[in-house]
Amino acid sequence: MYTEECVNTFLKEQGRLYDEPVAESYEEAEEFLEDCMAVEVRSLREVRKYLDEAGADVSGMSDQDLEDACEVFRLPSGGYLIVEG
Questions:
Q1: CA 40, CA 3: separation in Å to the nearest integer?
Q2: Strands, DSSP E only, in 1-85?
Q3: Residues near 69 by Cβ (< 8 Å), separated by ≥ 6?
Q4: Contact predicate 65/1, CB 8 Å
Q5: Which of 9, 1, 14, 12 is nearest to 70 (CA)?
Q6: What is the pLDDT of residues 22-78, one digit of tens each?
Q7: How far, in Å, CA of 45 to CA of 5, rounded?
């Protein structure tokens, strides 16, 4: 289950990751996040750890690079949603 903040952020900003919308409604966005097993984390440190454990080479990436990664969505509360496409 994803927070309303995660779902709404993804719904609004999905164009960063996909050329065409993958969800048109809140329910579709929530289902899509569940299907791709998106992850919500609280800090960039956790983003770095998650991506590193997933096999991404993040050793040379700055915090700004991590925030700018297309699969990382900054949440209004300060956390992050990671959606692997």
A1: 9
A2: 39-41, 72-74, 80-82
A3: 51, 61
A4: no
A5: 14
A6: 999 999 999 999 999 999 999 999 999 999 999 999 999 999 999 999 999 999 999
A7: 20
In the prediction, which pLDDT does 32 show? Answer: 97
Asked if the model's pLDDT at residue 85 lies above 90, the reply is: no
Between CA 67 and CA 46 the distance in angstroms is 12
Distance CA 57, CA 26 (A): 32
> Do the Cβ atoms of 69 and 3 come closer than 8 Å?
no
Amino acid in the structure at residue 40: E
**Do 7 and 67 form a contact (C-beta atoms < 8 A)?**
no
| Region of residue 78 (left: phi > 0; alpha: psi -120 to 50; beta: else) | left
**DSSP code of residue 16:** G
